[in-house]
Task: structure prediction
Amino acid sequence: MRKIIPRKIKGFRDSNPGLNSLKWHIINSAGTVYKLYGFEHWDTPVMEYADCIGKYLPEADSVDEGIYFFRNPEKENLFDDEGGLLKDSAGNFLLDNHFIALRYDLTAPLSRLYAEQLWDTYKRGQLTGNNAPLLRRYQYGPVFRYEAKLDPGRFREFWQLDFDSVGSADMGVDAEACMVLSDALEAIGLQRGSFIVKVNNRKIFKGYLANLGLADENMEQAILRIIDKADKIGKEGMILELGKGRKDKSGAEIPGLGLDDSLVSRITGFLDDFSHDASRSDVLTNLRSLSGGNIHLDEGIAELTEIDGILSGLGFDEDRVVFSPALVRGMSYYTGPVFEVESTLTFKDDKGNERRVGSICGGGRYDGLVERLLGAKVPATGASIGVDRLAELLTLTNALPQSQQGPVLIISFDAALKSEYMKIASELRSEGISSEVYYGLQKGLKKQMAYGDKKAAPVVIIIGSDEHAKGVATIRDMRMGAAMSADAASKEEWKSKAQVEVPRGEIAAKVKEMLHKS
Amino acid sequence: MRKIIPRKIKGFRDSNPGLNSLKWHIINSAGTVYKLYGFEHWDTPVMEYADCIGKYLPEADSVDEGIYFFRNPEKENLFDDEGGLLKDSAGNFLLDNHFIALRYDLTAPLSRLYAEQLWDTYKRGQLTGNNAPLLRRYQYGPVFRYEAKLDPGRFREFWQLDFDSVGSADMGVDAEACMVLSDALEAIGLQRGSFIVKVNNRKIFKGYLANLGLADENMEQAILRIIDKADKIGKEGMILELGKGRKDKSGAEIPGLGLDDSLVSRITGFLDDFSHDASRSDVLTNLRSLSGGNIHLDEGIAELTEIDGILSGLGFDEDRVVFSPALVRGMSYYTGPVFEVESTLTFKDDKGNERRVGSICGGGRYDGLVERLLGAKVPATGASIGVDRLAELLTLTNALPQSQQGPVLIISFDAALKSEYMKIASELRSEGISSEVYYGLQKGLKKQMAYGDKKAAPVVIIIGSDEHAKGVATIRDMRMGAAMSADAASKEEWKSKAQVEVPRGEIAAKVKEMLHKS
Result:
C-alpha cells in the first residue's frame, strides 16, 4: 500500500521551460551588465553554518524565524574565540552538531566568504586600518525564507542576482549601484521610465530619531521594522504599533513600542513629508533644514550629495534615480545608502483590479556585516535583483514578448522506419536545428501532433511507408498552420499552404526555409 | 566577545571566477546539445519532501544515510493512501512536521514532478495502459550528499547536468542518451578518443544471477552494491564481502553476504570475462552464449542489440560507445540499460603519480521510479554529467585552456579626478568594454596594480594631475607587460613598449586596439 503523495514542499515551485527562459534571460542580461562594471562571478554554497550568516531578516527577532535550519549530521569541534579547539577538563575535544541553515540571501554568505579569506591575515594581526582588499563580485542562485504566512505569488525559495563591492567606503560604488541597477533593468528589456531607482541613507532617519531623543540602536531597529511593515499592516496599524499596540485579525495582542503621540506624529510626519515627488536637490535642501547639526544626518546628507553629483555628471537624471528619505529596507544590516527599484507598471489582477508590481530590486551599504565575523571593520555595499519577482512582472505586464521555439518533431509513423527518422533528426542537428524523433508511448498521429503543439514545435515531418517508397517527406509549418486554421476556406486549402511534400534530400533545406520565414 | 569563526560547512566550497567560468562553459555547451536533441529546460526546488525522493543512494541502507534532512518547520496534514486528509477520532485533522531533504540527485525530483503533474489524471482512473505522456527535460543545479568520509577533491554539494525522457520505453532514447553524452562532451571541448561511453543493461546481470540461483531482488541489490564498491575496497575486499565478510581498517567487522566460494568465483569470473576490450558484436556474441534461455538475460541482450544497430546506423562506432557487461552503476533504481562515461585522460597527482580521472557521467533506465510515486508504471531513461568532476578533469589535464579576461582598470590616482575616471569607465562600457574605477581602501599605486593583476585586467589606465592638465592618459598593456617583463633590457625599454600616452579623446580607441591585438 502506497502512503506517498507526489507533491512539492508548500511554498516551493517547479519552473517550466517558459519561466526558465525568462529567468535566464534576466540572469544573463543583467550578468553581462554586472561584468561590464568589473564585477566577477563567485558562488557560495546553498547552506551555511547558521552562526556565520546571522539574523538580519525583516521582522525576525530570533535566529530561527524565517530561516530553514537544522543540526549538521556531522559532529564537529567547538571553538574558542581565537578559532582554537575547545577541550573538556579530561583533555578530550568538545564536539557538537552545529546548526546549519539554508541561506536567506546572498549578502550574508558573501560576508562569510570575505571574512574567511581574510581570517588568517586578521589573526596574524596584519589587517589593520584601511588595508582590507577590494572584492567586487556578482552571484545568482536560490535563497530560502520560511515565511509562516505566504502571500499569493510569493515563494519560500526564490532567486536573487546580486552584485557587491566589499572593501570600499567610496560613495562612487554606491552611486554606481544605482547605475548598474538602471542599466541592468534596461538590458533585460524594461523601458526607461517604467521603473525608478529610489535612494535613501540610513544615517538620515537615525539622525532624525536622535534629534527626537530616540538614539537607542534597538529602538531604531524596532521603529524601522514597524515602518517596513506599513505595506502589510496599513498606516493605522503602523501608528498603533509605534504607540500603544494593537490587536491583529485573530484578536491577538501585538505590543506597541510605547512612543507618545507627539513622537509618533513626528515620525509619521517625516514619512509623509518625503513621500511626495521632489527633485534630488529639493530633497537635499529639505533634509538640510532638518539637520540641527546632528552628525548622522549631516553625514547622510553629505553622502547623498556626493551620489547626486556623480549621477548628474554621468547623465543619470531624475527620470532614473530619485532620493526617497521615507524609503525603509527590511534588512537590519544596512548602515548607509540604501536602494530600491520600484516598477511603475501596472497589471490587472484576477478580479480585474489595476495593481502595481512594486519593488523589484533592493540593496544598500552594510559596513558592519563583515566586522561581526572578521573582527576588522570592512565597508561594503551592493544590491540585488529579485529574479522571480521580475519574471512575474515581465509576464504580468507583457513587457517582454517571449517567442519560445521548440524542436522540429519527426513523427513516428511507421516503426520500421525508425532508423530513417533518426537519420533525419541527426542531419537536422548537424545543421544546428533542434529536432527530435517522437518516442512516446501514445502512438496515434493526433497524440504526436498534440505533443508537438505543446512543445511549440515550429515544423513537423511526416514520413509513412508510401512517402518512404516515393523518396519524399511531408513537412508541415506549424506556425503558419496555426495562423491559418481560423480563416482557411477548406481543409484542402489549409493543407496546400501549411504543408508541402519535398524530396528526401531536400528536407533540411526546406525546414531551414520555414524556420527563417517566420 | 566574538564566538563565531568565519567558515564554510565541511565538505562545501566556494567557486571562484575561474571555476565558475569553467562550470558555466560546461553547462552552456552541454545544454545547447541537450536542446538540439529536443530536451526542454525544467527546474525543481533544491529541497523535497523526503518520502517523495526516497532512498536510492549507493551504499545507503536507510533513508537517512547520505542525505541531509530535517523536519519542516510547518505543521501539515497527514494523508491517507488516496491523498485524503487524515482525522483523529474526534474529527480533528492530524498534523505533523514532515521530513524534508536536500535533493541528492535530479532524477528523483523529476519523478516527483512528473508524478505530481499526472496525479489527478491517475486518481480519476484515466492513466491506464500506455497513455502516459512523454516529457523530455534537461536540468542543472546543485545536489547534496552527506558522505561521512569524504575523498579528497570530492564535495558534499556538487552540480549535476541531467537530461531524461519520461514516458518512453523506446530503446531509441537509450541509444540517444549515448549520442547526447558523446556530442555534449565534444561540445564542451573534450577530444574524441579521450573518453568512452560504456553501456550495460541491468537485466543481464540479473539474468546471470538468476541462472546461478540468486533470483532474489534484495540479494541482487546487495551484490550490486558490493561490486560497486570494488574501486574503494579492492577486488579482495569485494570477494570477502560477497562471502564470509571482512574486517575494515579500524578492525570493525563488515558482515558478508555468505555466498559460497563457487558462487563468488562465478560472479568475479563474469566481471573478469567482460573487463577486457571487445567489440560490441563480440560482447553480444559472448552474452548470447551465457543466456541459457533466461528471460532477463535475453531481454537485456535484445535491448543492447537494438542500441548497437541504432548507434552503428548513425556512425557512433566503437571509438565512442562500447558495451561493458561488468559496468555497475550505484543507484538502485536502474532497471535496464545503464551508461557511464569514462575519461581516459591521466594527470599527475601531488606525489607525481600518473592517475586517471575515471567516471565523469552516468545514467540509465529507471522504469520503476515514477511508479513508486504515481501508482502507474511509466518507463523513463536519462543521464547526467557531473559538472564539478568534469571541471576538475579539464583543469587537471589542461584539456581546455581558459583565457579569462578581467575588466579594464582605471587607477584612482587623484581623488579630485574621480568624476573624470568615472566618465572614462562609462565611455568604455558604452563600447561594450568591461571596466571599473578602483574604489578600494588601499590607495597606493602598487596595491592598485596588484588588484588589476589579480583580476587579470588586460589594460590599466593612469591619469594623474599632470596628465589631466596636458589632456592625455597613460595606458598600460598588462598582458604585453607581463610577457616582456622577463627579458626587457631595461625598465625604460619595458615602459616604452608596454605603455603609451594617448590624447584623452583617443583612450577608447587605443584600449580597443590593445584588447584585439592579443
